Amino acid sequence: MSLFAALAVSADQGFAACTRVITVPVASTGRSVIISGKQIDGIYPDLLRSLMEKEACKFALSAVPRARMELMFETGRADLLIPASRTPKRDEHGIFIPMIYNRATLISLESNRPVISSVQDLLDKKDLKVALVRGFDYGPAYQDLIKELSRQKRLYLDADPLSVARLLKAGIADITIMAPSILAGAIMDDGRVQDMLEKLRFEPIPELPWGDSGAYISKKSLSAEDSLALKDLLEQVAKSGMVWKGFQRYYPANVLKESIRPR
């Protein structure tokens, strides 16, 4: 079923439209959200704009740093957090709508280094520096790893995936952890790091398994009416398969194989 067909079904079933504009701060996230100056594009902005064309809900997108975006959501100043992996911390503040399966992996540049098979294996290799994006969250094991790497003074926290890619290329950091689609998307169009794309090494570890990714609807900022309208709308989007089609349109198959699966 196409997205527009799914929305037509929604209308026939009497799902309500939103009563006000929905506030959606976004941060650069590979090809999921592409920010260039004042222009915001990518898989999820495309999706939200298609919803606005059907006059179901209107969304006000704004580009902000990732850490600020998370804070805005936690404090009720953002109505929607998209895209977002499901985590216990975010569950406290929002209603989660799953749209896709994703996972984070260890990512580095190709080398003869032995394979890293677990979090403990990474912690034991104390010569390896790790660069992460401030505000990313892949669950409790990831958060525990951040604390331990920080204690060992092996951690760089940067503002966005492109900055992390530049640290890897410069040899300042050896490894990052994020969904491969996010890092690949960040470097595809930047001439400074574009040559890294064919040299990336992906290493899944059991502490970072496949999980849900989608959208969080704020529990704090929305009326019950608008919350229900958004929930119905986004659930229809998830059933339509358009999110997976968006990833297929924006990414090469080898990147998706390591990080994204359809629901």
Percentage of residues assigned to helices: 25-40%
The count of domains is 2
Q: What is the correct CATH architecture of the largest domain? A: 3-Layer(aba) Sandwich
- Tell me about the largest β-sheet: 5 strands, mixed
- Might you state the CATH topology name of the largest domain? D-Maltodextrin-Binding Protein, domain 2
Shape: globular
Spatial sequence of strands, sheet with the most strands? 9-8-10-7-11
Could you state the order of secondary-structure elements as H and E? HEEEHEHEHEEHEHEHEHEEHHHE
Q: So how many helices?
A: 11
First and last CA, distance: 14 Å
* Rg, nearest Å: 19 Å
Instruction: Briefly note the structural class of the backbone.
Output: alpha/beta
How would you describe the overall organization of this protein?
With 263 residues, the protein is α/β, with parallel strands linked by helices. It folds into two domains: 3-101 and 212-261, Periplasmic binding protein-like II (D-Maltodextrin-Binding Protein, domain 2, 3-Layer(aba) Sandwich), CATH 3.40.190; 105-203, Periplasmic binding protein-like II (D-Maltodextrin-Binding Protein, domain 2). It has eleven helices and 13 strands. Strands 9-8-10-7-11 form a five-stranded mixed β-sheet. A four-stranded antiparallel β-sheet has the order 5-12-6-13, with helices on both faces. A hairpin with a 2-residue loop joins strand 2 (34-36) and strand 3. Helix 1 (3-12) crosses helix 9. It is globular, with a radius of gyration of 19 Å. The two termini are 14 Å apart. The relative contact order is 0.22.
